[in-house]
Design a protein that fits this description.
- The protein contains twelve helices and 30 strands.
- With 526 residues, the protein is an alpha/beta fold.
- Strand 12 and strand 13 form a beta hairpin.
Length: 526
Amino acid sequence: MCPALLLPTHSTQIFRRFKGLTSFRLYIRHYATQPESAPLQRKKVWSSADAAVQDVKSGDIVLSGGFGLCGTPETLITALSRRNDVHSLTAVSNNAGSGDSGLVKLLKSRQLDKLIISYLGGNKYLERMYLDGKMSLELVPQGTLVERMRAHGAGIPAFFTPTGASTTVETGGIPIRFKAGGFKEGVLIPGNKKEYRDFNGKRYIMEPAIAGDVAFIHAWKADEAGNLIFRHVANNYNNAMARNAQLVIAEAEEIVPIGSLPPDAVHVPGIFVDRVVQATEPKVFDIIATAPPPGTTGGPTPEELLEKSTRRRIAKRAAQELRDGFYVNLGVGIPTLVTEYLPPGVKIWLQSENGILGMGPFPTEDQVDPDITNAGKETVTLLPGASIFDSTDSFGMIRGGHMDVAILGAMQVSQAGDIANFMIPGKLVKGIGGAMDLVSNPDKTKVIVAMDHCAKDGSPKIMQECSLPLTGARAVSQIITDLAVFNVDRSGGFLTLMEVSKGVTVEEVRAKTACDFKVSDNLGQM
């Protein structure tokens, strides 16, 4: 068969004689170009949010972007809340908002029947409705949740993940709905039990993709072709959700003509977006956390606060585990204090689950930005060299073991390194959040628990076996409390006491620990 050459019509290439080439065929393909003045085939920019949400119907699964109130599609949610004819919705989001903002609006308008979320946090209204049996709630680990949405958008029906293996996520032990009358009346809809498999000696569970009927997205900029750009941390869940649903509606702070957005700056190509509307609701903050202005004097230093705070002494000891250049994720509570006690010369890269690597301290009042917040929904800053990404990438680096250390708080830890830190059945439902993902790869990411040795009622928090639902099994490598430091042998299932606090004896530690442990031959002082 003769060789064939395919050239564009504008080619002026001169053919040279090739050794062994006796003849050739020339095929010409004509490429059509659209005139710049040609109208769009489909008009994507709609006149109002009320018009854009008219095709949402009762029973739909609605994906709602945002993390806390950062990147929340408030204009579209507000418009849907005015649709009294729409009910029995299932909403999927990281959380349900706070105060009267976010998906709380649809809860209070009685349009939501079920929520699939990762974290309730301090949303007492939602917690009460769930515990009273007035709504369905499916709690999903944060990284798993975004991956389930990303998977459907990429045509993948299910996947295996280590997150949640050997926990109530695998066994279906977290009820989706209680009977009328609440927790005391029993379970109406049980949790979803997951299939598991072992790969290379490690346990994984199968998670199904989530398919949305409608997605509500908040963008910084959109053009008339539907291309979207997010601003800072508002990328979060919006990116994956925009690629998922049958009907994707984006509200944008600014709508620009085609050609106005640099192609390499586009986060979501227009092929995924069906409708674009102008965002009209104002941005709001979850928590405005600020630092004093530069040069401000007065107030105790972190070192001066140590004498009065056991929590700070725990944080200072945990800081000694960090090395220069480490990539670190810090949980809420005691772990947030760790950065105040880093050893001299040690600089770390802080990662926040909502999409920051290189997170800085709290801003001054003139620096606060609703699009730069941490996983605790507090305003923060970005350090030189920082990067921002969506929740899919964030949990890919966590689950993939790219973090050096994760420091978390806990309600209980077992002698084998099991950790429980997300719920007390029937009493406290904070949600899973990102904790299950953070402890899912302990062979590559060292997991340190920083907590008080005993609960407020004096009961031990270090147990032979955890009595509360697990966040992760055999995940913790080190426990640091106000009394002691333990190393955990995760494979052997035992603890070794390495250090005791000043004035604390081994006998006191034994009396306040609900399991046996070994004592190091080189026992030190914290």
